[in-house]
């Protein structure tokens, strides 16, 4: 029954796709037929498409939910505007017969006399509502419980030809003033308009190379023009935020070396945005090995040690993402990550991210001992005792419980000192009892485990 229902749904989707294609192809008015005949034929096709949609709605309602199927609903490409890359809320048809989102094609036609898709020269710049497609989109949204955005009059960003012109100014041996002005405009556009990063990688040839050419040409003197460097790196950050761009950006041979250099040189904002770009790119598992080279990791650790707290936070997020690959953990520990994190934690600002990274590092050999030698147990107990932030408290408990309490270093003196500190904390301040009675479910479980560990250790029982 389930297979039959799924088969019917697939069949109806194919029928719907065929009907939509025919309606889209009839977007313009035929020269050989009257407008009345054209409208009649169009209405018949629309009625047929709506019939298919209603049948699909009925079939979908009978389907047994599949827990293994993706929960992400894919909008049919026929319902997306080529210019906005999003579902159309106000579709209009131009003289070439192609359909676009009104506000995007309106801006296109202010400067161009061609069809974005077919490239043909248009007979005029007029357009009219495509009621057929609008009705189909509305019906599809109802069937799939998809929220259709309301029409908007907000301005839109650059199109591929405009991006190409800016990149020409950025990459050509023109004046520094022209390069900087073009980079500034591209930075502004990539931040403000979602369609610009989408066009940048897929629609503009060699876009990444051309964007980074000025910085690559400067070599080690990358920071000799800080304004240009900042705008280029910031534009690269906004381009990297788009999920479908992450692979192409990270795999480009110029990107990681130039982001690494920018971590070391340039303005505070440049270093901060370079760290955030690496964090964005590291979210993709396939990029972690590409980014996790010794030089990049060393530069990230240096930012955590020395830089402004915002840059340090961004660098910490990047390290956290990269260190899901175990081999990267040894590299950052050897570069001095542990004392850098502890010093940041002592500042008591955004402690949770530093605790997250430190918790990840405690799986590495020698890290627990390094933390103890740096006096971190006292610092952490003080944070736990005084924190009003459940996240900070729970992460701190995780470090103590999951690593320190149960680790066996073979050094009895070290372990006795650790027990003494944690036991005194509980006796004086009831820190873990407080978490065991007032914390979240996770905090309660961890605090109770610590209390049991103190009890076992105090009576000389063997660890399980």
From TrEMBL:
Domain U-box, chain residue ranges per copy: 74-147
E.C. no: 2.3.2.27
Annotated pathway: Protein modification; protein ubiquitination
Xref: InterPro entries: ARM-like, ARM-type_fold, RING-Ubox_PUB, Ubox_domain, Znf_RING/FYVE/PHD
Keyword Transferase: yes
GO molecular function: ubiquitin protein ligase activity
Catalytic activity: S-ubiquitinyl-[E2 ubiquitin-conjugating enzyme]-L-cysteine + [acceptor protein]-L-lysine = [E2 ubiquitin-conjugating enzyme]-L-cysteine + N(6)-ubiquitinyl-[acceptor protein]-L-lysine
Keywords from the named record: Transferase, Ubl conjugation pathway
Source organism superkingdom: Eukaryota
Stretches of the chain forming a coiled coil according to its record: none
Name the record gives this protein: RING-type E3 ubiquitin transferase
